[in-house]
Amino acid sequence: MTQQNDDTKVAIITGASRGIGAALVPAYRKLGYAVVATARSFTEFGIDPEVLTVAADIAAPGAGAHVVDAALHRFGRVDTVVNNAGIFVAKPFTEYTDEDFDAVTGVNLRGFFEVSRSAVAAMLDQRDGGHLVNVSTSLVDHANSAVPSALASLTKGGLNAVTKSLAVEYAARGIRVNAVALGIIRTPMHPPETHADLARLHPVGRLGDIDDVVDAIRYLEQAPFVTGEVLHVDGGQSAGH
């Protein structure tokens, strides 16, 4: 086990190999956190002893506990989990396959459940609180006929609900639970030729940038009186169009 400074907090970030997750790693380092970055595969984050990469498929039973155990072994504690990993499959409802269902629920729900359950247990043992941040979508609140997304709503809607449930369950124990509900963010999953059409889905007329999401999560991390919040980072999408 690495000897950890008593003042150093530790964040676990899932889906950390690219996009929002990869940007959250240096963001949390700037906040002074050691980081456990997990994804199915990685390019290493340079030579930084305060960043541990753990290759894991969080949809697999036991993978979440493995990630948390790795954090505890290396750094001795867990203070924050950002449940960023997710799968989005846009199809008409009747065209979803059993494989689609298993893939989306595996990452979006089982992955959240396994990582968060083990992390909360560690936070309770530490007795000094902690924080979960769940990455959701504004499509839960503002469905769009142009973006058929029943599995996203099914799973991410569950994350919105459990955010409030866990926030209340653990408020007296010092563990906060929040979510960010995103619009369409400029990440590698959206080819550049689609950006103009996608921007029209937001009242502000543009895509979100990764920094918009990182700034929102940084805010929640540093807002000790905020818990049970689903913060919309969506260019006004959830308000209407």
UniProtKB/TrEMBL annotation:
One of its GO terms (biological process) is fatty acid elongation. One of its GO terms (molecular function) is oxidoreductase activity, acting on the CH-OH group of donors, NAD or NADP as acceptor. Pfam families: adh_short_C2 (PF13561). InterPro entries: NAD(P)-bd_dom_sf, SDR_fam. Keywords: Oxidoreductase. Coiled coil: none annotated. CDD domains: SDR_c (cd05233). It comes from the Bacteria. This is SDR family oxidoreductase.
